[in-house]
Amino acid sequence: MLFPDSRPRRLRQSDAIRRMVRETTLSVDDLILPLFVINGKGVKNPIDSMPGQYQLSIDNLVITSKKAYELGIPAIMLFGIPDKKDPLATTAYAKNGIVQKAASTLKEKVPDLLIITDVCLCQYMDHGHCGIVEGHTIDNDATLDLLAKTALSHARAGADMVAPSDMMDGRVAEIRNTLDENDYTHTPIMSYAVKYCSSFYGPFRDAADSAPKFGDRRTYQMDPANVLEAVREATMDVEEGADIIMVKPALPYLDIVCRIREEIDLPVAAYNVSGEYAMIKAADKMGWLDGQRVMMETLTAIKRAGADLILTYFAIDAAQALRNNNEER
Ligand code: PBG
Asked: Domain of 158: which CATH number?
């Protein structure tokens, strides 16, 4: 039907009617809050390139996690910042490592908040790469054992879910086997299956002190130009035993989120990464756009593209906005 018989504006006339025909609804249940944990007490170091985000010692991590939980956010994603780094990332799988200590304290203090741990080695390696380095290359197969050890130590400490973000081939199967052999058959794996080699991770690397000391991550993270490869990566991880498939970054890769949602019958998560957060915060500070509205538009767009779950540094702000919105009605 054409105009004037059809008038799409009829369904846009009021808030009530817009709500009735709305196709995508963002919910607090969709949100996962990434948090950075560091050794010490009373530490709350602001991250310059991520206004509103901090490196937190465990006591402050508990406070922020409680706040997230009370707002209804179901899960956090934990990133550790260790005191020591070495060529075998030993602090990544140490029993008293920073993530292990944080996970066990959180399980005690905020037991119903789901704890997902990022499983990677880059923060723990003195060279900043996500795997064992031989000369100037990354040894894929030698790295798998360390990743599995790290995932297992997180589960032992109380992590409810593990999320490998290293992009080594075969790591999901290795982690699944190790968890199963040690009776963690119920610990799900959220795989950073489709992780691009993106410049949008810049602020995160400041926050986690994880920038590579030489070269870049192009031999393991994906080429931003590829989409078929995303389908292959996701399919492989499903076969290896992943429970949730993640696409990362989110906003510049919404076509990929959409494609993966169509191809894969597991829940799909999208990571609204540090650079996406920083851009909105910076433009808001300059007065160039309304950060609060752009945040909600962005998160809704990521959901509309097909993400069931969204990892976002905006989780607390968005949960508050969703709550205020409901209260206003
Ligand atoms: C660790 C890891 C990174 C991010 C999540 N896990 C950095 C990287 O791969 O260099 C990025 C998250 C963000 O930018 O918000 N490998």
From this structure: 3.20.20.70
